[in-house]
Design goal:
The protein is α+β, with helices and mostly antiparallel strands and about 350 residues long. About 30% of the residues lie in helices and about 20% in strands. Strands 1, 2, 3, 4, 5, 6, 7, 8, 9 and 10 form a 10-stranded antiparallel β-sheet that branches. Helix 2 packs parallel to helix 3 and helix 2 crosses helix 8. The longest helix has 30 residues. The chain is globular.
Length: about 350
Amino acid sequence: MADRPTSSKSTVRSLAPIAVVVVALAAAFVFTGGWLSPARLTPAKIINALAPPGGPVLGHRRNHAKGICFTGSFESNGAAAALSKARMFAAGSFPVTGRFNLGTPDPNAPDATVRVRGLGLRIVASDGTEWRTAMINAPVFAVATPEAFYDLLKASADTKDPDAMKNFVAAHPEFGAFGAWAVGGTWTGSYAQERYNSLNSFIFTDAAGKDQAVRWSFVPAAQPEAVSPDQLKTRGDDFLDADITQRVHSAPQKWTLVVTVANPGDPTADPTKPWPEDRRKVEAGTLVVNAIEPEVDGPCRDLNFDPTVLPPGMHVSDDPFPAARSAAYSVSFNRRTAEDKDYPHHAAGGATP
């Protein structure tokens, strides 16, 4: 019985580290929620700022709201296995669920009015590990930080100050490259002709534990054909869905995964800064799209293309955007799933109410 005080002290000491961890996690949760600093940027603030003037379209994604689902495979050739031990880079075929989409909060926006087109992928390895990624067709991102992105959303929605965007651009010169692409870049008439870029940097880890910063792109097999925005307006509000459905019905559509490897000193924390064209590139395999399905009750409907869902052999870099995107995507996912009754599910018999 004499050892009880010692035992009690030992128990307290053993619990102390656990208590510290719990307190730290709680503090981090409060901090990321913005509760300790009302002025701090939070995921909810970003999602709220994405809403159009009339408010969000309930039941839908808060951005990239218009899209169409597909299924297919990633045919890995094994070339990227030297860069990453991720299972889906070993030679083989891996199932894919994906989504072509437009960068708009309006699921009914006419296709010709939306400049940014996106590609979301979920690639699953045989051991159940996943790689999720969400990419866009822009060659660079618009701004360098999540805070600047929030400021961009506010400026673009400011109807009271006619100089809001002008002042934003003056304060964020990095916006120039994205703006030049948005105004003067090539438009195509098909999701199948777009190159989709990660823009954010990630870290690949090989079997020996060596880390390497990378970015990636999915480069289309279909030859891009320039179409003017005015010509696209004559094709109907939903021409992109109709086009990709017809193309895939005729033959599988393909993209080559090209991994670009950074040199020492290349910027990894700023997606507005492209890497030089002479950087090492590895063709890792082919995305094959075999079937298209409407998003309503389709396989991508309830998928969150969280860019931080990564398999062993891949992890985030010092780029702040993947974490910010993950947090914002979570808020969007939770809101839209809570609004399921407002989403236009297929009724019995296949009709859409």
